[in-house]
Amino acid sequence: MTLSSAGWSPWVALMVVGSLYVFGGSRAKRSLSSGRAQCEALAGAAELPGRMVVIGDLHGDRDALVEILVAAGVSDASCEWRGGQDAVVVQLGDVVDRGPDSEGANACLRRLQASAPGAVFRLAGNHEVIWAEGDFRFASRTETPAVRSRLIRMWLDEVSAGNVVGAYAAGPVLFTHAGFRPAMLAKVSPDPFAQNPASVAASLARLVNSELRSAVEKCSGIRCAFEGDLFSAGRDRGGNGVGGTFWTDFGILLDADADALPAGLVQVVGHSAARCSARASPKCEPIRARQDLAAVCVDAGLSVAYASNRAYLEIRNGTLVTLTRTVGGAWRERDLTAEACASDNNPPDSDGRSPPLQDAL
């Protein structure tokens, strides 16, 4: 990663350890308080919109997108905004590849965003990145070269215009496609003067967005080369890099020691599709989370190319709630915040995982 392109000097990176631990004091204190840090940050987050609807990877399934938008009450079937003044929609990228209608899914998101300026945030995923690099190995047969070229050109223009971003921050919640793993956090640092998780989230989002725009500016036509740590794949995805925010498997965040993640920061990501079927098994939880809420994965496997699940996340005044269409077609709600913030009735196991959610992996 070229940190200087984002206005970051080398000495900042050297301050990562101190800046990531500033919120919890000593390591011993962090070990005792980290399970509560996210709860406290969410409870006190005045910056969060009243209601956020968060949608994971679509992979060419417009029908799945429309069904979620309608179920959440933020759109009608034509993809026109119906969410009112207080709602916000965040889509976590990977709109293209695998499924049959990447063009339709993109068109729906563009229309939704155009009809609600400032209320719809569209993130870039690794599949948009690899399309811009000329890698179409996962493209559906319906995605002809002409369709792919058209979508890439529009995507590049939208990144340049700020309609598609690499990250979005709302209070202590950081939205990226795949998340900051500890090894990646060790490569960069949030603002060394930040004193709260909201400042960390905002700093990291600015870094990702700056790096993405800078990379797009260097593209030749519709062919790009996304270089540096931020765009690298780790060994978990067959690469040799650190593993940036477009390529981190959720298992990396799930297994990370609490002390290796910034206290109070809630990372909401996609990228790692749920493989179970919520309409076939009552045990399936397509949206997965760490017990301490330091990381939540919203890639429910929406696409027909996966499990065709229907699930999304809502953040209601700082409360994280999953909504999943289950056996029989009913929508089930699960309050992740209540579970995480309860008084030690449901502690995480030794690796930080939440036992009730593990059945879904």
UniProtKB/TrEMBL annotation:
InterPro entries found in the cross-reference section: Calcineurin-like_PHP (IPR004843), Metallo-depent_PP-like (IPR029052)
Keywords: Membrane, Transmembrane, Transmembrane helix
Signal peptide: none
Gene3D superfamilies named among the record's database cross-references: 3.60.21.10
One Pfam family per UniProt: Metallophos
Ranges of residues in domain Calcineurin-like phosphoesterase: 51-181
Name this protein carries in UniProt: Calcineurin-like phosphoesterase domain-containing protein
